[in-house]
Amino acid sequence: MLYIGIDLGGTNIAAGIVDEKGNILKKDSVPTLAERPIEEIVNDMASLCRRLLAEENISIDDIEAIGLGCPGTVDSQNGIIAYANNLKMKNTPIREMLGDRFPGKRIKLENDANAAAFGEYAVNGGGAGSFVFITLGTGVGGGVIIDGKLYKGFNGAGAELGHTTLVLDGEPCSCGRNGCWEAYASVTALIRQTKAAMDSAPDSSMHRWVEENGKVSGRTAFDCARNGDKAAQAVVDNYVKYVADGIVDTINIFQPETLLIGGGISKEGEYLLGPIREYVEKYDYNKYMPKTKIGAATLFNDAGIIGAALSE
Amino acid sequence: MLYIGIDLGGTNIAAGIVDEKGNILKKDSVPTLAERPIEEIVNDMASLCRRLLAEENISIDDIEAIGLGCPGTVDSQNGIIAYANNLKMKNTPIREMLGDRFPGKRIKLENDANAAAFGEYAVNGGGAGSFVFITLGTGVGGGVIIDGKLYKGFNGAGAELGHTTLVLDGEPCSCGRNGCWEAYASVTALIRQTKAAMDSAPDSSMHRWVEENGKVSGRTAFDCARNGDKAAQAVVDNYVKYVADGIVDTINIFQPETLLIGGGISKEGEYLLGPIREYVEKYDYNKYMPKTKIGAATLFNDAGIIGAALSE
């Protein structure tokens, strides 16, 4: 069984032909150019799909369904992007628009964070009855899979795990509240924390790292900490605590069989996961029953394509 | 169809005969006397059930199942209380023990907070596809019902909504962490907050209230605030914010169709619910899709009996 998954982002449209196990047979991407008319964006999505099919000698008739993952508030049931700031879309009937280009083909619509979560679940979830995926990126995204299905609440807007308070009245968050987990545990937050630490530690090797690498990134503090820089280690320790504390919250709520952490920073591997596991072991409310398995996600940018292809 | 629900608490054993709609035909309670041998407690549970049946002229054969709600960490699947501090129970095969007193009868075991949530869902949930119940009491308890079933995670220990951070490194919580929602939004916390406010406001009418009522309670600040006491109003405003902020978190995660707030303090009605709704309206991440209905629970102590009787 073959599917097409499309990951529509503010910068790129990525698409791939995906088999039922989550293998990508072929993928490519084109620029979104989000400022242009939506019809043109949908045309390019359709052209990309057709090109991938042609290059693999696959007929559209052999495609079970086309899944589309989109940012913003997505009304999966009605096939509408209710609002997507970085795509300039509001009440956009994107499923119908894409369906017009593929008459008779089933088109599925999903929020991009949920699609990515489903991709990780499909490939790395091992059929877990309950599964949570956390992405640490520009924001903190989440996705929850219960009994093989995305949990999204009655209105489809749930699983916003990053938008839960970590510090009441704390740092401002993009959502309009203060103190959300996202405002402490995103890579955006880590960069802010790194810059603040550099300001108060003029001798830190982080300054040299930035000279060599052009700018502060989510890797600055981790790289320098690994080389023994104390100020960098303090940044990492604090950041890990922010991440881990939110993960304890998530586990106390969902007690998922498996929880995977994704986003570029999950490449830090055990350097990130080890302390998180230790923190969770210490503070998890559950002391008497089996424990959630915590691991790193593996699909990175492919998760959205695979999840869009395979989710319901 | 008739059921028996038992709510086993540290102080009392309450039980009732419940019909399939959640009506209690007859109920009563006896002291738990938690320090005595478990066999004696189970004997008293069984006697209480038999007495209720006799008083209503109902045969045990007409009872579909007996449900038992217990505090602590409950392994529903295996019918075991893994750990219950206030019952001095550890790895107690309570389902088997109660089953021995009612041969052939189906016995169900549930965590007490989950049982109460299921009771509120059964009676007040209106068949919502997603439903959350929050109790503000000694602690902050939670229960989540998805597609008509309690959500408890893979190990049965989930839905500990009160044990999620509101203030990182904040007030100590009974669970061993600091800054949990429970440490700010429970009635225990409200009493602590009220006492602190009284210490710094010697002229507050709260002092007179306490003289008249014997001790500080969850009602002290609410009653005095309603009569125009400013220090009391500040306590209520802060407390409502603590409660409401955690409810925003819960909604951002679950986006339940209905969320009910229970515990004695929910008797404050709109005085509590109005400001909570306002806060949620302002800070809910979901701006474009239908909104969660927020209301007060109605069953109070009966919720546990009804939920134990009717949950799976």
From TrEMBL, chains A, B:
Family: Belongs to the ROK (NagC/XylR) family.
InterPro entries on file: ATPase_NBD, ROK, ROK_cs
Gene3D superfamilies documented for this protein: 3.30.420.40
PANTHER family registered for this protein in UniProt: BIFUNCTIONAL UDP-N-ACETYLGLUCOSAMINE 2-EPIMERASE_N-ACETYLMANNOSAMINE KINASE, ROK (REPRESSOR, ORF, KINASE) FAMILY
Coiled-coil stretches: none
Natural source organism: Candidatus Ornithomonoglobus intestinigallinarum
Protein name, entry field: ROK family protein
PROSITE patterns reported in the protein's UniProt record: ROK
